[in-house]
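Below is a filled-in request sheet from our internal design queue. Each sheet records the structural input a requester submitted and the sequence that came back. We keep these sheets so that new team members can see what a complete request looks like end to end.

REQUESTER: design group, bay 2
PRIORITY: normal
MODE: inverse folding
CHAIN LENGTH: 509
BACKBONE (tokenized):
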């Protein structure tokens, strides 16, 4: 709806409850903010897996009859936003397959860096893919595994993928949660009576009355198959790279993510922002809803009162019909309306969590001015976003990121603000325990913790939304397009793109 990085996916799993599918439905409902394109649930009763997937919101994807057909005491669910693969029903998850190891259902949050490479190898060996998602390679690798047990086959399959993954998997009689060794995406573990719950965020546990126990650790696989939960760490350890953007924007503020209260972390971002970039003002105004927690912290630290000077219309959905060009300036006003009694004649500090392109922020600043504000100061509770994400988040090309292509003064002028300041990288990482050692900050630094395969030039091109990939016969060459060249990448990604060779492409979103 606004100019933001797009959420990824949400996963949910429950073992040992007679209402497993209904509880999964509720869990997905709580995780709806992580994906709105499709929703799916698979359940099992110890004998077989049943599944239902549909495009659209959770509320629209299931009815009482569908849920009644999803019988059994274990279930996994998924809400999807397509970070890799098109938005169509075939790509909805959980993916369910039948194999020599039995049935398997899989839900994935993240993005597999080497999926294209693995997929080509599998296709060359005769595999037939049903979807265009990166996640499907895992079920093919599982099906082809010669391992003696189901769990060994899952371990062998997941051991071959690289990148970001929080998986929930289900066989006919167990659910398994797996988090990649870097721990990019969250995955939490909880209890509901004797049942085990595994899900992306704890807000899903709150809705069903489950208790948060702990996070699934980076590189850990947890298996619920009886009253006990088993834990194994079958993968080589790696430097932890938990996505700090989960705290900045993606996760719900009522969740605990990476063991921390998102609300508290976001409020601390605001306090630090006020210390770093305070300004004389009359009122702090959050840009709802994403700027509210940071604005609370900013107001607390600065002593300037916070008022809701912008009111959001919560009933603007994806079906909103864009008006004709002649009246399109109503676009932002349909979503936000300024409160003149709060803004008129005031020096206003607008607080938001992030700026991507800057287009919406500019409209909001102008709207606040038109409501009579004397001064408008923009404060952003994260550092400038200068690089795309390859770990499960949909981001625009680098040349569209305003902070990647403009100086701070140019941004201020573009936004029509009296001043603009962002939280520093140190301010961001100092707001969470082990922030400098356990978190990914690549979209602020351009330095990427997981190397890309050297033959994945086209992957990068699509991921960065560059020009089409060259033909397979083309020699490796620097990528140059209007407004974008290899200088647009920094650190390891730039080196790898410059050295990349093949023209494989899988990412189509
Ligand atoms: S690049 Fe940014 S959005 Fe992506 S995982 Fe890292 S911190 Fe999160």
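RETURNED SEQUENCE:
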């Amino acid at each position: 709806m606004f100019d933001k990085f797009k959420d990824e996916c949400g996963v949910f799993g429950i073992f040992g409850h007679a209402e497993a599918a209904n509880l999964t439905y509720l869990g997905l409902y709580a995780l709806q903010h992580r994906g709105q394109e499709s929703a799916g649930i698979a359940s099992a009763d110890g004998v077989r897996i049943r599944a239902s997937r549909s495009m659209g919101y959770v509320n629209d994807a299931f009815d009482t009859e569908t849920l009644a057909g999803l019988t059994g005491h274990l279930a996994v669910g998924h809400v999807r936003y397509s970070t890799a693969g098109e938005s169509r029903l075939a790509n909805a998850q959980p993916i369910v397959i039948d194999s020599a190891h039995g049935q398997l259902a899989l839900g994935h949050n993240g993005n597999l860096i080497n999926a294209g490479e693995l997929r080509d190898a599998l296709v060359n060996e005769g595999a037939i893919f049903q979807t265009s998602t990166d996640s499907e390679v895992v079920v093919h690798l599982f099906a082809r595994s010669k391992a003696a047990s189901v769990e060994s086959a899952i371990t062998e399959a997941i051991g071959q993928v690289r990148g970001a993954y929080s998986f929930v998997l289900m066989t006919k009689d167990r659910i398994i949660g797996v988090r990649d060794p870097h721990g990019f995406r969250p995955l939490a573990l909880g209890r509901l009576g004797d049942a085990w719950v595994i899900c992306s965020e704890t807000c899903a546990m709150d809705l069903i009355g489950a208790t948060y126990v702990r996070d699934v650790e980076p590189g850990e696989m947890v298996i619920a198959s009886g009253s006990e939960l088993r834990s194994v760490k079958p993968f080589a350890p790696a430097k932890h790279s938990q996505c700090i953007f989960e705290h900045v924007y993606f996760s719900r503020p009522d969740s605990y993510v990476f063991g921390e209260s998102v609300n508290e972390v976001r409020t601390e971002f605001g306090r630090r922002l006020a210390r770093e970039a305070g300004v004389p003002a009359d009122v702090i105004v959050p840009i709802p809803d994403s700027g509210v927690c940071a604005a609370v912290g900013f107001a607390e630290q600065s002593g300037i009162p916070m008022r809701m000077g912008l009111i959001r219309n919560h009933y603007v959905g994806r079906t909103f019909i864009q008006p004709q060009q002649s009246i399109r300036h109503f676009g932002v006003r349909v979503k936000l309306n300024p409160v003149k009694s709060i803004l008129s004649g005031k020096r206003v500090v607008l607080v938001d969590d992030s700026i991507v392109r800057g287009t919406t922020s500019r409209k909001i600043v102008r709207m606040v001015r038109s409501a009579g504000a004397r001064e408008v100061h923009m404060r952003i509770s994260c550092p400038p976003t200068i690089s795309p994400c390859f770990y499960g988040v949909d981001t625009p090309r680098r040349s569209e990121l305003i902070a990647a292509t403009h100086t701070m003064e140019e941004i201020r002028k573009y936004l029509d603000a009296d001043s603009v300041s962002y939280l520093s990288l140190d301010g961001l990482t100092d707001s969470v325990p082990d922030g400098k050692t356990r978190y990914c900050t690549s979209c602020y630094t351009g330095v990427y913790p997981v190397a890309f395969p050297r033959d994945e030039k086209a992957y990068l091109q699509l991921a960065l939304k560059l020009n089409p990939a060259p033909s397979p016969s083309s020699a490796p060459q620097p990528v140059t397009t209007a407004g974008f060249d290899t200088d647009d990448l920094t650190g390891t990604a730039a080196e790898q793109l410059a050295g990349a060779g093949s023209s494989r492409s899988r990412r189509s979103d």
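SHEET NOTES:
- Confidence is low (pLDDT under 50) at residues 464-509.
- Residues 184, 243-245, 389, 391, 393, 440-443 surround iron/sulfur cluster (CB under 6 Å).
FILED BY: M.R.
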